[in-house]
Amino acid sequence: MNRPFFKRLIFILSVIILVAFCVQLNDVAKPQLVNTQGRAFERATVTEIVRDNLQENGSRIGDPNGLDIVLMQGLSGGIGVILTVPFAASASSWLLLRKGA
User: What global pTM score does this model have?
Assistant: First the structure.
């Protein structure tokens, strides 16, 4: 048997075994840590800290209601849809007109 062919075959088999081992190692059942069903998360910006809840040890534990926030909804939240629909409509109409000509 040819030596370089045998070395390549051993190398390819070892790579396949290594990949199979890594796939087997990553097949882990991941438990759900936080239940987020029924919740919606929006982007927000803190505009002012009204009441700081700084503790004596330097941590901030407790009520976060001392913040003024502005939710980023509406136009900025739906900017992808607002820009995508007219672009897709104009591109599809241009393609249909070009195909018909």
Answer: 0.31
